[in-house]
């Protein structure tokens, strides 16, 4: 019995250690948390969403709710999702008292303790479209984008804070050394805009890297005129050996000798525009069917 009680007390002590003297939640290193404390930047991020396609919004990693309150002032149906139990407790209890104006602004707030990467988004908002935003944990930010792409039919817009290099990579154009898998896959379905940079000093604790905010707006036609599964495979395979020409990096594909002689295979992946990857995928698909 005493052993169980000791574990409970230790757990309670760890929970208390996550709070500072004012009762606020402390950022946790193992969760990659860096809480934004600049009100103007939080307001600017909330303003990056047009909300023209939907009033439903998922905020990933709300922390102490500095961005949350500005989203609520925009009269949205907001799901704030965080893996940190301490943040969930704060958002469910103290947040309403600390931000009365936001809570009375006509918005709806639901707080969910969950890992976005493993959460089933299907039932959220009764299957309706939703936007995604947040001050994303940098250690999983790329994975968040990949999961967003899996449900892109429901996500008309996406915005948020990334490590600057990752945000720039997502928005990079062909010919740029940072242009890669994320760039092509995102830009095939979304218009990508790098909006502004953010210094480390506006976070608690300050990260060791610069940050950047981007916005993704889904294209009017976001279904590709090719096999989308094959498109993803072609892009990922090509960039996995980005220094090689496509003739070498795509040699695992069943491509006929005649097609393999096409001049496009003399190029490296970073030289191809998104439209070129789509065209290449269509050609591979046709060539494979012809060979069979």
Task: Characterise the protein shown here.
The protein is α/β, with parallel strands linked by helices and 292 residues long. The chain folds into 2 domains: 10-218, Rossmann fold, CATH 3.40.50.150; 228-291, Helicase, Ruva Protein, domain 3 (Orthogonal Bundle). Helices cover 39% and strands 17% of the residues. It contains 12 helices and 9 strands. It has a 4-stranded parallel beta sheet, with helices on one face. Helix 2 (39-46) crosses helix 3 (66-72) and helix 9 (228-240) packs across helix 12. The longest helix has 18 residues, at 274-291. The radius of gyration is 22 Å and the shape is elongated. The model is unreliable at 1-22 (pLDDT under 50).
Entry keywords:
single chain, alpha/beta, Rossmann fold, four-stranded parallel β-sheet, three-stranded antiparallel β-sheet, 12 helices, 9 strands, 39% helix
- Total helices: the number is 12
Mean pLDDT: 89
Q: What is the chains' assembly state?
A: single chain
Radius of gyration: 22 Å
Tell me, what is the CATH class of the largest domain?
A: Alpha Beta
Q: Estimate percent helicity.
A: 25-40%
Structural class: alpha/beta
- Number of domain units: 2
Give the CATH architecture of the largest domain. 3-Layer(aba) Sandwich
Strand arrangement in the largest pleated sheet:
4-3-2-5
Q: Which fold name is given in CATH as the topology of the largest domain?
A: Rossmann fold
Task: Summarize the helix and strand pattern as letters.
Answer: HEHEHEHHEEHEHHEEEHHHH
Rough outline = elongated
- Biggest sheet, in brief? 4 strands, parallel
| Corresponding CATH superfamily of the largest domain | Vaccinia Virus protein VP39
Count of extended strands: 9
N-end to C-end Cα span: 70 Å
Proportion of β residues? Answer: 15-25%
Poorly predicted ranges:
1-22
């Amino acid at each position: 019995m005493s052993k169980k009680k000791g574990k409970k007390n230790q757990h309670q002590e760890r929970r208390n250690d996550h709070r500072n003297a004012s009762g606020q939640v402390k950022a946790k290193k193992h969760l990659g948390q860096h809480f934004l404390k600049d009100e103007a930047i939080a307001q600017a991020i909330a303003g990056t969403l047009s909300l023209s396609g939907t009033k439903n919004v998922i905020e990933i990693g709300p922390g102490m709710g500095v961005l949350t309150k500005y989203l609520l002032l925009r009269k949205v149906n907001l799901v704030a999702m965080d893996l940190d139990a301490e943040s969930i407790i704060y958002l469910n209890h103290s947040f309403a008292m600390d931000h009365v104006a936001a809570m009375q602004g006509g918005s709806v707030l639901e707080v969910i303790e969950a890992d976005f990467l493993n959460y089933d988004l299907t039932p959220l908002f009764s299957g309706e479209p939703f936007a995604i935003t947040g001050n994303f944990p940098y250690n999983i930010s790329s994975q968040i984008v990949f999961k967003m792409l899996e449900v892109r039919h429901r996500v008309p817009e996406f915005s948020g804070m990334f490590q600057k290099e990752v945000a720039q990579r997502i928005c990079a154009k062909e010919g740029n050394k940072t242009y890669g898998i994320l760039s092509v896959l995102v830009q095939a379905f979304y218009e990508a805009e790098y909006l502004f940079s953010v210094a480390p000093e506006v976070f608690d604790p300050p990260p060791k890297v610069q940050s950047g905010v981007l916005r993704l707006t889904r294209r009017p036609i976001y279904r590709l005129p090719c096999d989308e599964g094959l498109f993803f495979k072609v892009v990922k395979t090509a960039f996995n050996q980005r220094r090689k020409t496509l003739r070498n990096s795509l040699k695992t594909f069943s491509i006929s000798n005649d097609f393999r002689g096409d001049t496009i295979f003399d190029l490296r992946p970073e030289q191809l525009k998104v439209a070129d990857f789509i065209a290449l995928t269509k050609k591979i698909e046709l060539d494979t069917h012809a060979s069979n």
